[in-house]
Amino acid sequence: MLSQDTIQKSEMGARGAMLGGQKKSTVRMLFIEDNESDFHVLKKHAEATNGPRKYELDWASSYQQGLRKLESEHYDLVMVDYVLDESNGIELVKSLNSVAAYPPFILMTHYDDYRYYDDSVEAGFYDYLIKGEVTPSLLDRFALYAIERRKVETKLRYERQCFLYALERLPYVVLRTDITFRITDTNKRGLDMFGCEQSDLVGAGVFDFIQTPHKQEIIDQFFSGHHQAVSFTSLIQKEVSERSSVSDKTVLWDCLYRDFESEKGYLFIGKDISDQLRIEPSDDETPETLDAALSRAARSFGNKS
Q1: Domain presence at residue 178
Q2: Are residues 148 and 275 both part of a single domain?
Q3: How many angstroms from the chain centroid is the CA of residue 27?
Q4: Looking at residue 294, which CATH number applies to its domain?
Q5: Nearest to residue 187, comparing CAs of 251, 270, 300?
Q6: Do 66 and 92 contact (CB within 8 A), yes or no?
Q7: What whole-number distance in Å separates Cα of residue 102 and Cα of residue 122?
Q8: What is the pLDDT at residue 7?
């Protein structure tokens, strides 16, 4: 039976052979640290890593120099000491306008103090390293996780921007509410349909704007736990100031329950089907009932009702 030492050496040999033909990628790292000896210790660890990354370490010896370098240079990762000459590393990161616009930050300190954990996360740090526990492999692993996490976050932000761009151009009204059916936001189509500003909608009850006799039935279906989506129609009246009259719109709604870890609520997606209901039958056609018209409209909206 192979010993643990033999297995470890075999794995290290295989890993070395695998990495042997690979060109190392360069990681530019800034260390904001007012103690020069601590900088040289970290630099020694960075130079001793044997993974597929080569570290180029830059040094800022003060709070202000660190800010200047962050604004003028490009880095892949920033290590920040907790204790700095005129403040501390947490305050430095908090002072930045948008942490997401900068490289990922890792806090470094000599002390394993739980009080730093929440403060550092709240400020925008990705991780927390104890100086006396740093090794080349640990530094390499923390750097890799921080950089890869930033890549994922950047991709998610881009996808969210694309989603919001598309949301504003949908031909449908989209309303988001909290778990109590109070509106949290809407798209431009929603503002146009209700004829009001975002500030008039946010915080208001969604059924104050969506008039339907099925309100209680809709709420009961969701709270029963048996439904994740409900379809219904409503009549929306909007004042037309130019003609001093009221415009009636019939809207077909899909209401979906959304459940995220940090946010639960409902999504209302509405399509104006007024024009489809106004189609007049010819003399030789049987007049279409309201139920039939709504059924046809629902099918065209991608629903079966």
Answers
A1: yes
A2: no
A3: 26
A4: 3.30.450.20
A5: 270
A6: yes
A7: 16
A8: 44
Token look-up 């509410």 returns 177
What the block records as the tokens of 134 is 């740093």
pLDDT tens-place string over residues 67-96? 999 999 999 999 999 988 778 999 999 999
Sheet holding 53-60, edge to edge: 53-60, 25-32, 77-81, 105-109, 127-130
**pLDDT tens digits, one per residue of 93-152:** 999 978 888 999 999 998 888 888 888 999 999 999 999 999 999 999 999 999 999 999
Print burial letters for 27-51: b (CB count within 10 Å at least 16), e (below 16): bebbbbbbeeebbeebbebbeebeb
CATH of residue 32: 3.40.50.2300
In DSSP terms, 234 is beta-bridged to 251
Mean of per-residue pLDDT scores for the chain: 81
pTM: 0.63
Q: Can you say whether the dihedral through the CA atoms of 191, 197, 201, 207 is positive or negative?
A: negative
Same domain, 194 and 271: yes
Q: How far apart are CA 254 and CA 8, in angstroms?
A: 58
- DSSP string covering 18-46: HHHTSPPEEEEEEEE-S-HHHHHHHHHHH
234 Cβ contact list (under 8 Å, min separation 6): 210, 211, 212, 250, 251, 253, 270
Reading the block at residue 98, the tokens are 């948008």
Using N-to-C axis directions, what is the helix angle for 136-167 and 36-48, rounded to 10°?
A: 90
- Cβ(258)–Cβ(275) under 8 Å? no
What sign does the dihedral 85-91-97-100 (CA atoms) show? Answer: positive
Which residues lie closer than 8 Å to 67 by C-beta, 6 or more apart? Answer: 92, 95
- pLDDT value at position 17? 44
Confidence of residue 304 (pLDDT cuts 50, 70, 90): very low
